Amino acid sequence: MNPTTPAQHRQAIWMLLLANLLWGVSFPLIKTMALLQVRLVPGSGTWFITACTLLPRFALGALVLAVLCRRMLRTLMRSEWRQGLGLGLFAMAGMTFQNDGLQLTSASTSAFLTQFYAIMIPVWLALRARLLPPWTVWVSCGLVLAGVAVLARLDWHDLKLGRGELETLVGSVFFMGQILWLERGEFSGNRALPVTIIMFAVMAVAAAGLGFLVAPAGVNLRPLLGNGSWLGYTLVLTTLCTLGSFTIMNVWQPRMSATEAGLLYCSEPVFTAVMAMFLPAWFAAWSAVGYANETMGTNLLIGGGLITAANVLVQLKPVRTPGVPA
After folding, report:
1. Residue 55's pLDDT is what?
2. Burial state string for 192-205 with b = 16 or more CB within 10 A and e = fewer than 16
3. What is the pTM of this model?
4. CB-based contact 100:47 (threshold 8 Å)
5. 3-state secondary structure the chain
6. CA distances from 321 to 64, 106, 149 (A)
7. Measured between alpha carbons, how far is 33 from 238 in angstroms, rounded to an integer?
8. Is residue 308 a contact partner of residue 122, using CB atoms and an 8 Å limit?
9. What confidence tens digit (pLDDT) does each residue in 223-241 have?
């Protein structure tokens, strides 16, 4: 890949913000799908619900991209196989632990703990390079964590590390691995779309394996697969939050440093909070589940402002990486 120009870098910032916007839709979608599966398929455990949510979106995503890019598949390079396999394994592990943990802890605690990769990325890079990142990174990380804590109404007195909290932290580590794997210089010449197809295929196979292992005895999925609401949610989740977001991520994240990308991804809770103010009631009415809208408050304004300030600050002195302009 040729060195990134300042104009391409700015475009990459906007594209990653768009990816976060699309991912913001996924939270109320997945929450509704989980509630719907509990009603339609009694006895579904949290791991089985996670598998049933992940499998169709990534299987369909891989199929659609494979059809659109079938000519590229004939010339797959070994490095593209390797990058796609790594991305798929990291992303699948992160999403599995995060989705399961979310069902076992509060959304506020889950959101706060997930953002720990914004701290772990610069720390890991500093340890690897034996260098300290600039002060703007540390201040930005602090602003992000404070912003997410305010946005999610985190109660420090209730913060505990049970199974849900530990799973969320484990998921955050894998998300960090996904971001760092995508940045590796050895993959600079890879094509993003073939890599994404491999990534989606790996995730679909892993989700199928998980579902097979944790499926309750005698489970009947016909009520779920025949439900128009669940099928509609799956289609939206596949189109916007899978094909849209992950393709944008794989194409545009390499245009910036992993640290900068990690901070930009922390804008996702802002978009999620906005979506949660009106989408739950729409979904609940469509699928007959109990899911109420969240309300606008000072926490959204303050928390969102802190996260926005973090991203503005890191843009004033971006982290230098090979091929990416500062």
Report:
1. 96
2. bbbbbbbbbbbbbb
3. 0.85
4. yes
5. CCCCCHHHHHHHHHHHHHHHHHHHHHHHHHHHHHHHHHHHCCCCCHHHHHHHHHHHHHHHHHHHHHHHCHHHHCCCCHHHHHHHHHHHHHHHHHHHHHHHHHCCCCHHHHHHHHCCHHHHHHHHHHHHHCCCCCHHHHHHHHHHHHHHHHHCCCCHHHCCCCHHHHHHHHHHHHHHHHHHHHHCHHHCCCCHHHHHHHHHHHHHHHHHHHHHHHCCCCCCCHHHHCCHHHHHHHHHHHHHHHHHHHHHHHHHHHHCCHHHHHHHHCCHHHHHHHHCCCHHHHHHHHHCCCCCCCCCCHHHHHHHHHHHHHHHHHHHCCCCECCECC
6. 33, 37, 30
7. 13
8. no
9. 999 999 999 999 999 999 9
- Tell me the residue type at 31: K
If you average pLDDT over residues 99-115, what whole number do you get? 73
The contacts of residue 158 (CB under 8 Å, 6+ apart) are 106, 109
Q: Which residue has the higher pLDDT, 143 or 299?
A: 143
Listed by start position, the domains of the chain span 6-316
d(C-alpha 320, C-alpha 124), whole Å: 15
List pLDDT tens digits, range 248-270: 999 999 888 887 888 888 888 77
Identity of the residue numbered 236? V
Residue 175 has pLDDT above 70, yes or no: yes
Block residue for tokens 């892993």: 206
